[in-house]
């Protein structure tokens, strides 16, 4: 999970650093948050999760129909969870 420039994860630091796709995905969220502002970013992310839940696609934390997750690129796991 990323809000602002803070990435919160339960993944060990060395494993996170080794997973370049995940690191790119999460840093993309930091850029999204900077561009949109934290409030709009959080609103859009929660909206995407809500839409995903309505359609039974609330997988992977953010949901398969969450445009914020797809725009962050591969590495967040959605490309396999949601296919
Ligand atoms: Zn993500």
Query: Within the largest sheet, what's the order of strands?
Result: 1-2
Give the low-pLDDT segments: none
Class from secondary-structure proportions: mainly alpha
Mean pLDDT: 94
Q: Report the oligomer.
A: single chain
Strand content: under 5%
Name the shape in a single word. Answer: globular
Task: Tell me the series of helices and strands, N- to C-terminal.
Answer: EEHHHHH
Helix content bin = 55-70%
Radius of gyration: 12 Å
Which small-molecule ligands are present, each listed once?
Answer: zinc ion
- Count helical runs: 5
Through-space gap between termini = 21 Å
| Count of beta strands | 2
Largest sheet: 2 strands, antiparallel
Structural notes for this entry:
This protein is mainly α. It has a domain at 37-83. It is 59% helix and 5% strand. The protein has five helices and two strands; from the N terminus they run E-E-H-H-H-H-H. The chain has helices spanning 13-18, 20-36, 38-54, 67-71, 78-81; strands at 2-3, 6-7. It has a two-stranded antiparallel ribbon with strand order 1-2. 24% of the residues are buried. Residues 25, 29, 62, 69, 72, 76 line the site of zinc ion (ZN).
């Amino acid at each position: 999970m990323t809000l602002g420039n803070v990435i919160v994860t339960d993944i060990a630091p060395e494993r996170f650093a080794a997973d370049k796709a995940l690191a790119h995905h999460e840093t993309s969220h930091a850029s999204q948050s900077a561009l949109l502002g934290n409030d709009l970013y959080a609103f859009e992310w929660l909206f995407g999760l809500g839409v995903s839940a309505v359609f039974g696609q609330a997988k992977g934390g953010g949901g398969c129909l969450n445009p914020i997750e797809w725009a962050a690129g591969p590495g967040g796991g959605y490309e396999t969870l949601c296919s």
